[in-house]
Design a protein that fits this description.
Length: 542
């Protein structure tokens, strides 16, 4: 079923120039593109000749996973603007800034590119596959019209959560900017090409993965394809878990002369390697082949207590305090009554990777921690997730007994936990989710539980699998990296699904962690198992 552009009343209100005069070429049509909507201000519309290379944005990619495309961009019309510019309750300037790229030729498809972290910056609208190992062509190079937004606020970077003091800015970040930017982008597409998109896809990882789910849950008539990578579906509670993990590791970290914990040394790299080796020894062969990858993820059970130092043992083991810290972290955040505040975590070989350390521990040799859990969480919790806001939150003093109450209001507008997709599926919508099993930010077990609920609420597995597929990636950390095959192409799988009505049973993957290896990522709950010869793996029920 084709998607309508927007309700008729919305189009009448927009009054965009959908009947531009026929001009000699695309460049002329680009410079003539405009909007009569008083809520929209276009700051740039210029023609970009084919052959220019994208600009590197490593800071943004660190939180989104988007691989930097090395492919030259096609000729396209570049549009930048803002929707709903205003002065907020905190006296700051707000508005949903966006960038839209309209390629020539156009393939009739539209892609909304998700952001990451707390957003607040406008990335390049390229539609890059949002996993760091990805080598597949970005959407723009395939002929998609691509849009990206800062989600309604401008920050100093995408860890800046000060916008949380403004009510509307909270709503925009949570979901509302998706709706306003989608409506305007589609209207500009209609004005430029003279027709609406035949397919509309939202693709993102991390918070962009959460936003992808929100696009289907809050705007089910606007999209017929959703690609959600490592989605922070319960972002409000994941932030609480980040505080929990930081406290747990800080308790066992060595101290400075002033008594301050050095978080990065709570576990040394040798400790991480020791744990990963033990996890592999326990679980690697469960898929039929010991090869450094735990493909039989559902069968892996591990207790770090087996690594506790015996009396007099000084090496090749973990202190009891470190074992206790690992238990606290992997069992998940709880209040003092034992009530779970977030999920537990699966054990996997990714615990030894830089991608795991950068979130949980960091690398700082001082008491000034640089782990992302420690640097992002005080602001995101204090300014955005907690109501009322606590701008000067001391994470070491965070009260877990009050976490449910203090995060409830933002969680209600922010967390992508809905399971009713009836309008989305009635319109032909397809949902493709990819999750790293070693993600240190958003627990793969939390997503598994959501998927079980989604399946139950939608008529069971045969019915749900007609429109929704989940792919778990062994060893992969947050949006790529780790001992994993993180080079795969979910966008082509979505195109095939939309055009041929063929849901993907597997995604073929490779990765720099295992040169020369090619293996299927299987549609959950199936997992890859060794077939006994020639490194052949096939998907089968666990």
């Amino acid at each position: 079923m084709k998607r309508s552009l927007a309700p008729v009343s919305t189009l009448a209100l927009l009054s965009l120039c959908a009947s531009l005069p026929v001009l000699a070429d695309d460049a002329q049509r680009c410079t003539a593109l405009s909007s009569n909507d008083p809520a929209v201000s276009l700051s740039l519309h210029q023609w970009v000749a084919a052959g220019q290379l994208p600009q590197a944005n490593p800071g943004r990619a660190a939180l989104t996973g988007a691989a930097l495309s090395k492919a030259a961009m096609p000729a396209h019309c570049l549009v930048q603007g803002v929707i709903g510019a205003r002065t907020g309750a905190d006296g700051q300037a707000y508005g949903s800034h966006f960038e839209l790229r309209l390629p020539s030729p156009w393939n009739g498809r539209f892609l909304f590119q998700g952001g990451g972290g707390m957003d607040g910056v406008v990335g390049q609208a390229l539609g890059a596959i949002p996993f760091r190992g990805a080598s597949a062509l970005p959407a723009l190079d395939r002929g998609y019209a691509v849009v990206v937004t800062d989600s309604g606020h401008t920050g100093k970077d995408n860890s800046d959560a000060r916008f949380g003091l403004d009510q509307q800015a909270r709503l925009d970040y949570a979901y509302a900017a998706i709706g306003s930017v989608t409506t305007q982008a589609k209207a500009l597409i209609l004005a430029y090409y003279g027709k609406a998109p035949r397919h509309s896809v939202f693709m993102g990882c991390s918070n962009g993965g959460r936003s992808a789910l929100m696009a289907a849950q809050r705007y089910p008539t606007q999209f017929d394809g959703i690609i959600a990578g490592n989605p922070g579906l319960r972002l409000s509670r994941a932030a609480v878990a980040q505080a929990w993990d930081t406290q747990a590791f800080s308790r066992v970290a060595p101290r400075t002369a002033e008594g301050q914990p050095i978080l990065a040394q709570a576990l040394t790299q040798a400790d991480q390697d020791l744990i990963a080796k033990a996890v592999l020894a326990r679980c690697d062969g469960l898929d039929g082949l010991k090869d450094g990858s735990i493909d039989a993820m559902s069968h892996c059970r591990f207790d770090p207590a087996v690594l506790a130092c015996a009396a007099g043992q000084a090496s090749g083991c973990l202190s009891q305090a470190k074992v206790d810290a690992l238990h606290a972290v992997f069992n998940g955040a709880h209040d003092s009554h034992g009530q779970a505040l977030y999920s537990d975590w699966p054990w996997d070989a990714g615990i030894a990777s830089d991608g795991w350390r950068v979130w949980k521990l960091g690398t700082s040799a001082t008491a000034k921690a640089n782990a992302r859990n420690a640097t992002l969480t005080p602001g995101s919790l204090g300014y955005y997730f907690m109501t009322p806001a606590q701008p000067h939150l001391d994470m070491s003093q965070f009260n877990f007994d009050q976490a449910v109450e203090t995060t409830a209001q933002t969680g209600a507008i922010n967390d992508a936990v809905a399971t009713q997709y009836s309008t989305f599926t009635r319109g032909g919508g397809k949902l493709l989710v990819v999750q790293g099993n070693s993600d240190p930010v958003f627990s793969a077990n939390d997503l598994r539980r959501y998927w079980a609920q989604l399946t139950s609420d939608n008529g069971g597995r045969p019915q749900t699998e007609q429109w929704a597929r989940l792919f778990m990636v062994p060893g992969m950390t947050h949006c790529g990296d780790g001992p994993a095959l993180d080079d795969f192409d979910p966008l082509t799988a979505m195109e095939t699904w939309q055009d041929k009505q063929q849901p993907p049973a597997r995604l073929m993957a490779r990765g720099s962690a295992f040169p020369g290896r090619v293996r299927p990522l299987c549609a959950y709950p199936q997992e890859a198992h060794y077939q006994g010869h020639d490194d052949v793996f096939a998907c089968q029920e666990p």
